[in-house]
Specification:
Rossmann fold; alpha+beta; binds adenosine monophosphate; 3 domains; 367 residues; Dna Ligase, domain 1; D-amino Acid Aminotransferase, Chain A, domain 1
Length: 367
C-alpha cells in the first residue's frame, strides 16, 4: 500500500520509519531542499499547494496524509478518488484559532475566555471584557509561540497592535497555569480510539523543550481522555491527534489541537508498545491499532539550533538526528530516555538538559 505524506520534515521521517515494518511505502511532498524524510522514501519537491504535484501524489497513492497543518485545505479538497486522513474538517478547524475554540465550546471542553479581534476597538473591548493580562494571537499560521504577544498593561496595547494588527486576531485570557500537558490519541477507521498517557511539557522561547510521561494523575488522565474522545468522534477523525491543555489545579483548559503526530509524543517511539507514528500509519492504512501502553518512565529533550557533541555518545539516551543543517530556533534532533522509575527518568533527563544548556552557553560565548 502506498501512503502519500504531505510534508517531509522530522515528523515525516519518523512516520516513514514506522511505516517500513508495516510494509507501507511512503511518498512525500515537500518544497524544501533535502528534507529529513527523503531518507525514508521518495520525495517530490514542490509547493504544498502545487496542483500537479498533489494530483500525481493522489494518482500514485492509496491514501494521503499530512505531517504539517498549514497545508491549504482547498488544494486537498480538489483531490478526487483518494481518501485524505485526518479528514479535512479537522485540518480546517485547527488552522483557525477562532473555529478551533468554537469547536471546543461546542464540545463542552473547557477553555480560556476569548474574543475575536478584527480592529483596534475590538482589542480595547477584549481588554475590558477579559481583563489583563491577555494573549493576542494571529488566528492562522502561528506556531512555536510565533504570531503572539502578551498584553500585561494597558500601555502594551499599542506595541502589540503595531506588531500584529492588520491580521485576523484572537485575544485570550492569560491562564496562570500550573503546568502544560498534551494528550495524544489515535482513532482508527472503524472508530476505535487509543489514548496515550498524559505528557507534561515545558517550553523555552515558545518552542517545546522537554516532555515527560506518564503523569501520576489519574484524575487529569480521565478528563483529558474524555476531551480527546469527544474531539475525535465529532471530527470523524482518522489518525493521530495532539490536544494541548493547561493544568490549573484539578482542572484542564484546552489550548489548541494539532491534527497530526506531535513533538510532545516523540517519546512514544521508545517509551510505548506502539508509537504515535506507527499508530498514525496504522490508522490511515486501515490496519488495527497498536497498544499505547508505557514501557517505563520516559522523558524527551528537544535539540534546537544545534546538536551538542556529547549527546551522540550518551549511554542512557536514544539520540535522534533529523539530518538538518543547524540554524538558531530550528528543531534538529531529540533525545529520549526511558527509565524504570520516575525519579531515575527525571535524573536522566536533567543530565541531558544540562548538556544542552552548557552547549548553548558555549555557543553563545564562543568558548
Ligand atoms: P500556542 O501557540 O497557542 O500553543 O502558545 C504557545 C505557548 O504560549 C503555550 O504553550 C503557552 O506556554 C503560552 N500560552 C499560549 N496561550 C496562553 C494563554 N492563554 N495563557 C498563558 N499562556 C499561554
Amino acid at each position: 500500500m502506498r501512503v502519500g505524506v504531505i510534508g517531509a520534515g522530522q515528523l515525516g521521517l519518523m512516520l516513514g520509519e514506522s511505516a517500513k515494518p508495516l510494509q507501507l511505502e511512503c511518498l512525500f511532498l515537500d518544497p524544501g531542499d533535502q528534507p529529513p524524510a527523503a531518507a525514508v522514501g521518495d520525495c517530490r519537491l514542490a509547493a504544498f499547494d502545487d496542483a500537479d504535484a498533489l494530483a500525481e501524489l493522489a494518482a500514485f497513492c492509496d491514501v494521503i496524509t499530512y505531517e504539517f497543518e498549514n497545508v491549504p485545505v482547498d488544494a486537498l479538497a480538489k483531490l478526487d478518488g483518494v481518501p485524505v486522513f485526518p479528514p479535512l474538517q479537522a485540518l480546517s478547524a485547527a488552522q483557525d484559532r477562532l473555529s478551533e475554540k468554537q469547536l471546543f465550546e461546542d464540545l463542552s471542553i473547557p477553555l480560556p475566555g476569548y474574543l475575536a479581534v478584527d480592529s483596534r476597538d475590538d482589542l480595547d473591548e477584549a481588554v475590558d471584557r477579559l481583563g489583563l493580562p491577555i494573549v493576542l494571537k494571529t488566528r492562522r499560521f502561528g506556531y512555536d509561540g510565533k504570531g503572539q504577544a502578551v498584553i500585561r498593561n494597558s500601555s502594551d496595547r499599542d506595541k502589540a497592535w503595531d506588531e500584529l494588527g492588520g491580521m485576523a486576531l484572537i485575544a485570550e485570557a492569560f491562564v496562570p497555569f500550573d503546568f502544560e500537558v498534551s494528550v495524544i490519541a489515535t482513532r482508527g477507521q472503524s472508530g476505535d480510539i487509543v489514548v496515550y498517557p498524559l505528557t507534561q511539557n515545558t517550553h523555552a522561547n515558545g518552542i517545546l523543550d522537554t516532555s515527560i510521561a506518564p503523569l501520576d494523575s489519574p484524575r487529569l488522565e480521565t478528563q483529558a481522555g474524555d476531551y480527546v474522545h469527544r474531539l475525535l468522534d465529532r471530527l470523524d477523525y482518522v489518525g493521530t491527534v495532539a490536544l494541548e491543555l493547561f493544568v490549573c489545579g484539578e482542572k484542564l483548559l484546552a489550548n489548541e489541537f494539532a491534527p497530526r503526530v506531535h513533538n510532545s509524543g516523540h517519546w512514544t517511539i521508545e517509551g510505548c508498545r506502539c508509537s504515535q507514528f506507527e499508530n498514525h500509519m496504522r490508522a490511515v492504512a486501515g490496519l488495527p491499532l497498536g497498544q499505547p501502553d508505557c514501557e517505563g518512565y520516559s522523558g524527551m529533550q528537544n535539540l534546537v539550533g544545534s546538536i551538542p557533541d556529547s549527546v551522540r555518545s550518551l549511554e542512557d539516551g536514544h539520540f535522534h538526528d533529523y539530518g538538518k543543517s543547524e540554524r538558531p530556533g530550528r528543531k534538529v534532533g531529540h533525545v529520549t530516555v526511558v527509565a524504570s522509575s520516575a525519579e531515575s527518568r527525571d535524573r536522566a533527563i536533567a543530565r541531558v538538559s544540562k548538556i544542552v544548556t552548557q552547549w548553548a552557553s558555549r555557543t553563545v560565548t564562543g568558548t
